[in-house]
């Protein structure tokens, strides 16, 4: 009978997944890898969607395909002859059959490892996989991560052989308790969407490295920090910024951390002069470097200051989507986005509604474009659920860990249009506190709610953010253009206020009267009115949205499965009339 039970285990077991419930990999496992030399595992992987999750159910990761006598037994999957997929990539774009697939998929490949140094450590970095991901190396489950847009790290050292078989399962099924949750206005691309890389590190390595201007209004002090992955005390850490003549040695403390604040007179980073300095740190056998800009962003009363100069946020929102490869963009495409925004006269991009690739922040640093970054705490979430909170907080911290040295990132946003209920307020307060604790060098915000009955920004969250942001669509969802004026008349908050979304749908090339929905002329009129009613009354504006993007909730024939509020069409080239309205406004502002 026992034998029978064993034989039928995978088909009779409801609890098959229990054995795979290892703790989630979190920000605690993050490793500073910028500018380190990766060994890339990008390229062609084996792939199969696994609707019934049978690979996990039958534990095929470690199945040998042989019985006790060494005879071959039938298997339901042959890892060596799977369909092929490109990593990074989205399965939705691999084949029309997978366009709407939401569920589990299995990725597989082999790689060779040969040891270079005694004691070396091998860390695997997955740039992003949407949404829940598990990693098996040579049949052993090593890590599990949730959150589709931030990198995570797994140490492979103990389980490596000469020839290795790595299997990654990725599941993008939407769930009520996840972040984001069930309902959102963008496409749920699934897959390993950013690079997979190995890093070869010494036995004790630099796990974290931060360089920033101390935000004390003097513009003359730079803080440098490292943290080793082990609590080694008394190790000498050498910090260097050659161009500024800075060279400083500091000993690590009992937690393996070294920190110093040095006097300096850097040329400050701003949009006109995005000056970056090479910053280095060396400790024990390890060394790291980064290219860092030094700047100070601050609010005072209703104003926002960059390096002490009052600024207006000439923004635009943007999703991460390529013309035909889903979430996967090349650097050329990112530069195209930055250039289009620059050409429109922008000084800031709002990267909605989830962390975009870290490459965008690197390129924005170089291009002199400020960034607003956010996590997908979007619309309704399970705010009561402590696990949902931990997950959101972890996504925020992974994002902060990743982009902390990017001068371009000036605002962390913790949410978008969430209901003003107590559990949400507590949730958001927790996230804001986390941002402030881990990063005093940036501002915080969130898209707060407008009360359309009393016509004002009315959201308890406004008290806790540095910059009060709100989204409004007067002229579109509400047809009266003046609504935004009334809201501004009725709202008095002594903090910077920015409109993080406004706009109207328009099908590129569809022309007609200025009151006819979905025409370029109507979209143009909406923007003319927005400018008319908000100019001089707010500290920044972010039209929704730079490019049309795919969204399954947009089913009107004029939309055709796209959110058509782009100032530029999906082809990223065809500019609609409203683009020029914003261009004229921003260029002259
Ligand atoms: C919003 C959301 C954004 C939507 C937009 C729209 O308020 O924040 O994600 O895409 O409205 O087009 O309605």
TrEMBL record:
GO terms for molecular function: beta-glucuronidase activity; carbohydrate binding. It holds the Pfam family Glyco_hydro_2_C. Keywords: Glycosidase, Hydrolase. Residues 100-202 form the Glycosyl hydrolases family 2 sugar binding domain. Its EC number is 3.2.1.31. InterPro entries: Beta-gal/glucu_dom_sf, Galactose-bd-like_sf, GH, Glyco_hydro_2, Glyco_hydro_2_AS, Glyco_hydro_2_cat, Glyco_hydro_2_N, Ig-like_fold. It comes from the Bacteria. Residues 300-585 form the Glycoside hydrolase family 2 catalytic domain. GO terms for biological process: carbohydrate metabolic process; glucuronoside catabolic process. SUPFAM superfamilies: (Trans)glycosidases, beta-Galactosidase/glucuronidase domain, Galactose-binding domain-like. Residues 205-295 form the Glycoside hydrolase family 2 immunoglobulin-like beta-sandwich domain. The keyword Hydrolase applies. It is an enzyme of class 3 (hydrolase). Belongs to the glycosyl hydrolase 2 family. This is Beta-glucuronidase. It comes from [Clostridium] citroniae WAL-19142.
């Amino acid at each position: 009978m026992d034998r029978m039970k064993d034989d039928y285990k995978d088909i009779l077991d409801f609890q098959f997944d229990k054995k795979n419930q290892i703790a989630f990999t979190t920000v605690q496992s993050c490793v500073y890898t910028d500018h380190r030399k990766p060994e890339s595992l990008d390229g062609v992987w084996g792939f199969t969607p696994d609707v019934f999750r049978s690979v996990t159910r039958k534990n095929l990761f470690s199945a040998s395909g042989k019985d006790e006598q060494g005879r071959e037994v039938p298997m339901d999957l042959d890892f060596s002859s799977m369909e092929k997929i490109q990593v990074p990539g989205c399965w939705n774009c691999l084949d029309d059959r997978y366009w709407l697939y939401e569920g589990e998929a299995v990725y597989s490949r082999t790689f060779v490892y040969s040891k270079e140094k005694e004691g070396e450590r091998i860390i695997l970095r997955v740039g992003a996989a949407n949404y829940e991901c598990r990693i098996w190396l040579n049949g052993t489950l090593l890590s599990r991560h949730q959150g589709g847009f931030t990198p995570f790290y797994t140490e492979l050292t103990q389980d490596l052989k000469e020839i290795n078989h790595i299997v990654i399962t990725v599941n993008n099924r939407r769930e009520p308790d996840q972040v984001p949750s069930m309902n959102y206005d963008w496409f749920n691309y699934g897959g390993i969407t950013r690079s997979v890389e190995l890093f070869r590190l010494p036995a004790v390595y630099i796990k974290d490295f931060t360089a920033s201007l101390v935000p004390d209004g003097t513009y003359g002090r730079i803080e440098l920090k490292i943290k080793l992955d082990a609590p080694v005390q008394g190790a000498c850490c050498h910090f260097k910024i050659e161009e500024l003549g800075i060279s400083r040695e500091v000993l690590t403390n009992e937690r393996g951390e070294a920190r110093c604040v040095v006097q300096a007179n850097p040329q400050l980073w701003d949009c006109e002069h995005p000056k970056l300095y090479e910053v280095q740190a060396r400790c024990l056998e390890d060394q790291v470097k980064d290219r860092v800009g030094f700047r100070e962003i601050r609010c005072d009363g209703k104003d926002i200051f960059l390096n002490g100069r009052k600024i207006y946020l000439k923004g635009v929102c943007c999703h991460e989507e390529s013309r035909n490869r889903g979430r996967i963009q090349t650097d050329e495409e990112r530069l195209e986005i930055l250039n289009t925004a620059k050409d429109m006269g922008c000084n800031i991009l709002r990267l909605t509604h989830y962390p975009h690739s870290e490459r965008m922040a690197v390129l924005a640093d170089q291009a002199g474009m400020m960034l607003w970054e956010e996590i997908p705490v979007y619309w309704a979430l399970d705010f009561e659920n402590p696990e949902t909170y931990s997950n959101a907080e972890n996504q925020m911290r992974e994002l902060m860990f990743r982009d902390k040295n990017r001068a371009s990132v000036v605002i962390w946003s913790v949410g978008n249009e969430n209901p003003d209920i107590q559990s949400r307020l507590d949730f958001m307060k927790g996230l804001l506190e986390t941002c402030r604790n881990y990063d005093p060098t940036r501002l915080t915000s969130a898209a707060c709610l407008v009360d359309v009955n009393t016509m004002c920004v009315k959201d308890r969250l406004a008290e806790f953010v540095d910059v009060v942001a709100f989204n409004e669509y007067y002229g579109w969802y509400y047809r009266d253009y003046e609504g935004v004026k009334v809201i501004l008349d009725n709202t008095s908050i002594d903090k910077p206020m920015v409109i993080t979304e406004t706009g109207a749908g328009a099908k590129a090339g569809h022309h007609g009267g200025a009151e006819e929905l979905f025409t370029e002329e109507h979209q143009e009129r909406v923007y003319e009115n927005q400018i008319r009613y908000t100019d001089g009354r707010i500290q920044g504006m972010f039209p929704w949205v730079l490019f049309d993007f795919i969204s399954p909730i947009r089913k009107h024939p004029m939309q055709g499965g796209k959110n058509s509020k782009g100032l530029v069409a999906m082809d990223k080239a065809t500019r609609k009339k409203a683009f020029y309205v914003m261009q004229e406004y921003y260029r002259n502002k």
